[in-house]
Amino acid sequence: MAIHEKSLIDADRLKTAESLVIDGVDVSGHWNTMITPRTLRDYDEHFEKTIMKYGGGDYVYRCWQCGSCTNSCTMYAQNVNFNPRYWIYLTRLGLKDELIKDKDIIWQCVSCNKCTNICPKDVKPEGVMKALAHWMEEEGITEKTPSTKFDEEFWDQISARGRIEDSAVLQNFFKKTGQSLTQDWLVEMIKRMIKHLPLKHLIRSGMNTVFHPKTKSWGKTGDVLKEYVKQQKEAAHG
User: Fold this and answer.
1) CA of 21: how far to CAs of 10, 65, 82, in Å?
2) Domain containing 10: what range?
């Protein structure tokens, strides 16, 4: 049969002949491309359940491969290799190696939620894309995205002090992501703050950034919170 999704097939498995005759019938042209067979044995039968433990991947098992998610996808309209339906299919089969081939584009989901709104089985494909991206980060398959690094910085401050300091979050986030602290927009924002904010507020903000004050009686509360988060992670990925 004709092959319409060549992007999903490894190039070395596609065999094309300019002139092809089978059993005396000339099938050249649209029918002259064949796929060499292969047998997949390296799969993880528990992988679907692994992704279900990540936030957003809870309902991946509901997918019936109708393709509505990919048809509505904002990113698919820009790049036909961005294919949520296919990745959900691979997840359900436990074909991790096939998923990893697309590690450089899975994270590009823009969370427009068109796929989630149109899905007839309430799979929440957008959540599955995020779950796959987080799994790859945790496994060291891909580097942590800037959004993950921001979340980690936010949590580090909350768990340690029970509060955040906006300037400290921004400064540490920029350091972790290799961004300059003298970006034009940031310099302009600081100028406006100095111009319009009360001096007392500016001094307090600067002092808080240096001395890192804690929420009152945060010590034991912070320990309980960190233990709870630890238990939740162990339960999800254990």
Assistant:
1) 24, 35, 35
2) 6-35
Q: Outline where 139-217 has alpha helix (H).
A: 146-161, 166-176, 184-196, 199-211
Q: Is the whole model's pTM more than 0.70, yes or no?
A: no
CA distance 114 to 68: 9
Exposure of 105 by Cβ count < 10 A (0-12 exposed, 13-18 middle, 19+ buried)? middle
> Is the separation of the CB atoms in 133 and 54 below 8 Å?
no
pLDDT tens digits for range 122-149: 999 999 999 999 999 999 999 888 888 9
Interhelix angle 199-211/166-176, nearest 10 degrees: 50
Judgement on whether residues 232 and 163 belong to the same structural domain of the protein: yes
How far apart (Å, rounded) are the C-alpha atoms in residues 166 and 184?
18
Which run of H or of E encompasses 66? Answer: none
Nearest Cα neighbor of 142 from 176, 112, 85, 101 is 101
Whole-number Å distance between alpha carbons of 99 and 87:
6
What is the number of residues in the chain?
238
Task: Give residues with Cβ within 8 angstroms of 49, minimum separation 6.
Answer: none
Which domain-ending residue is among 109, 138, 167? 138
Q: Please report where in the chains the tokens 């100028």 appear, as a residue.
A: 191
| Structure-token pair, residue 55 | 């936030």
